[in-house]
Amino acid sequence: MVNRVNTLSIYIPKNKMDKNPVERLTKLAKQKERSINYLVVEAIIQYLDREERKSRK
Q: Which of 7, 25, 27, 37 is the most buried (most CB within 10 A)?
């Protein structure tokens, strides 16, 4: 059996860098005792759920 891992890389535009997303994620991950990956995946899922609910209306 082959174990495959899906990966996703993101690009943070320069105009968003002033909001310090990586530093903020790192700090929050430590506070929550979670990985940055966990937080990012949770955020994506919440966004998708919200947007999909909007499109069903």
A: 25
C-alpha span between 50 and 14 (Å, rounded): 26
Asked if residue 1 belongs to a domain, the reply is: no
Helices (H), 1-57: 14-17, 21-32, 36-56
Beta carbons of 26 and 40 less than 8 angstroms apart: no
**Position 9 pLDDT exceeds 90:** no
Q: Is residue 30 a part of any domain in this protein? A: yes
Query: Does residue 31 or residue 6 have the better pLDDT?
Result: 31
First to last CA, the chain: 42
- Is 9 a domain residue? no
Q: What is the pLDDT of residue 21?
A: 94
